[in-house]
Structures are given as structure tokens and as C-alpha cells.
Write a sequence for this structure.
């Protein structure tokens, strides 16, 4: 399992691949973001997004799952206090295949929480054409493998 | 009508309240964020958050849900008065998203949006970009999330 000590700057961890289906786009949008371009192909084509497209929050949610399946589930994550920025750079359309990576920018121990450190990541999600559709940076809390060493 | 005419900078608009039931928290998290503290109340006790709590992305999606409900009513209201509602488009993202406190099972979050500024988009004539501050406050008056959003507007 990956712990705080493993996340050295520059190290990169692949996200799991994700097939984006029309059904899932519509299901997410129906509950959280029922705008026409997220609900039907026709309305999507008529919008500047160019087709049935995922809500940005759906893209972020899919990224979260891709990260969980890709590497986070094999880590000592304790969750995150937020996101520095997230860009929805291109539409995510039904039929797209997403992939990507999380890259460590920096890390530091937390004085307020012994045994836990903060790791800052750059996350990039791209489609089957290699176009970046989403990027963002965020800190994730990670437990140390060896708490005694950290405390010493 | 432009958004700033409807909702001038600095005016906070309450968009709605969402109750986060344990069932909803787990249902969302099983699909998108199955970390133990979002899917298992027992396991959650052993983590920093200390109890079953909503994925931060679920809290954000809740903001969008109340916003769209608010906006659809607002558009209908304006049309009923013979006015043309602002034509809002997609968002290019957000920044400074803070999950300030966990949203635990049973919490209710009241969301709001506030326009900060609007400016023309240089790359696309007749299009404006609006900067907003969005937040969610729980039943104890504690802010649980906040972010700076953007939304396009077509003149």
C-alpha cells in the first residue's frame, strides 16, 4: 500500500480507464444537473458543447472514481480539504474513453495531525484523442508508513 | 437581460437546501468515491473524519442540483413577467474549492451563489464570463464548502 513516504515529487500514478456512456451522462444529469445538453443528444448538438456531454461535476466525479480505481484505493488516503483549481477544458461526450494520471508536485508533514502528511497532486484526464479534457490540482492527506520515524 | 442586472455583485442568492441521508451518501460514493469513510459507517470511525460523510464531489453536485432548480424557477418567473432571462452557458471550471467541514449523514446543506464580477470574453464576441462565489452551510450555520466558480453568458 502507498503511504506518505512513497509520494515523491515527479512520481506519477495512472488513473483507471473509463468508458463514458450516454446512459450514465443522463443518469447523473437527471439527479444533479438537468440541463438540456446533458440530457439529450439533440440538445447537446445544438449547444456549443457539440453533443451529449457530461456535466462538469460528472466529469469530476468520474475522475474521482478513475483515481480511486487507478491508485487511491491502494493508498493510505485520509481524504482531502479541497481543490486548488479544476479546469473543464473540453467537452466530455458520450462514447469517449478517458484516461490520465496524478503526478506528485510536493508533500509535507502536518504539524496539526501527527502521522499524517499532505501530498499535492496535479491530475490530468484525457480523451481517446489524447486531448486533455480536465486538469486540476489538489492536496490529499496520507498516513505515514512509519509514524515513530515521523514523530522523532 | 444580463445576469448582473438580475443579481448584482455582492448579492447572495440562496438556491436551496439538500438533506444528505446516509442512503444518498453511500449511493453516490459507491459509484464515484468508494473510500471507506464515504461508504461504511463503522469503518469511518477509524479515519480522520470520524464518521460516515459525503464525498466532497457529492457536496458539490448538491450545489449544482439546487442551483439548476433555482434557475429554472427564476427563468420561468422572468418569462412570466415578459422579461428575457440571462442566457447562461457552460462553465470552464472552478478554483479555491474548500471542503471546510465534513457533511455527515443527516446534515442539511443550504447553498448559495453570489456574482463577483462579469467581463467580456476576448476569444468569443458577445460572450461574457461571470465569476461567482458559491457556498454551502450546514444546519448549525457552519460553512461546509466554498468555491469560486465561472459561468459563460451569451449576450
Amino acid at each position: 500500500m502507498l503511504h506518505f513516504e512513497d509520494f515523491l515529487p515527479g512520481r506519477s500514478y495512472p488513473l483507471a480507464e473509463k468508458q463514458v456512456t450516454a446512459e450514465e451522462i443522463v443518469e447523473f444529469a437527471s439527479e444533479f444537473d438537468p440541463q438540456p445538453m446533458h440530457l439529450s443528444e439533440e440538445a447537446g448538438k445544438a449547444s456549443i458543447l457539440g453533443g451529449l456531454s457530461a456535466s462538469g461535476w460528472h466529469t469530476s466525479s468520474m475522475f474521482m472514481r478513475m483515481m480511486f480505481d487507478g491508485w487511491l484505493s491502494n493508498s493510505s488516503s485520509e481524504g482531502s480539504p479541497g481543490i486548488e483549481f479544476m479546469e473543464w477544458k473540453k467537452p466530455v461526450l458520450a462514447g469517449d474513453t478517458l484516461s490520465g494520471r496524478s503526478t506528485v508536485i510536493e508533500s509535507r508533514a502536518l504539524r496539526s495531525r501527527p502521522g499524517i502528511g499532505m501530498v499535492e497532486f496535479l491530475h490530468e484526464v484525457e480523451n481517446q484523442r489524447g486531448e486533455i479534457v480536465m486538469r486540476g490540482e489538489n492536496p490529499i492527506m496520507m498516513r505515514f508508513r512509519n509514524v515513530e520515524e515521523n514523530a522523532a | 437581460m444580463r445576469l448582473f442586472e438580475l443579481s448584482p455583485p455582492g448579492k447572495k442568492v440562496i438556491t436551496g437546501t439538500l438533506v444528505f441521508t446516509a442512503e444518498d451518501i453511500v449511493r453516490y460514493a459507491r459509484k464515484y468515491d468508494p473510500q471507506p469513510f464515504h461508504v461504511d459507517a463503522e469503518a469511518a470511525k477509524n479515519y480522520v473524519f470520524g464518521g460516515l460523510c459525503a464525498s466532497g464531489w457529492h457536496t458539490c453536485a448538491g450545489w449544482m442540483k439546487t442551483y439548476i432548480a433555482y434557475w429554472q424557477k427564476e427563468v420561468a418567473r422572468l418569462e412570466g413577467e415578459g422579461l428575457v432571462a440571462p442566457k447562461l452557458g457552460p462553465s470552464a471550471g472552478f478554483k479555491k474549492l474548500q471542503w471546510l467541514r465534513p457533511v455527515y449523514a443527516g446534515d442539511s446543506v443550504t447553498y448559495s451563489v453570489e456574482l463577483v464580477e462579469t467581463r467580456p470574453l476576448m476569444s468569443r464576441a458577445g460572450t461574457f464570463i461571470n465569476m461567482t462565489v458559491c457556498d454551502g452551510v450546514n444546519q448549525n450555520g457552519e460553512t461546509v464548502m466554498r468555491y469560486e466558480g465561472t459561468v459563460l453568458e451569451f449576450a
Notes: The CA atoms of residues 123 and 132 of chain B lie 20 Å apart. Chain B has a mean pLDDT of 96.
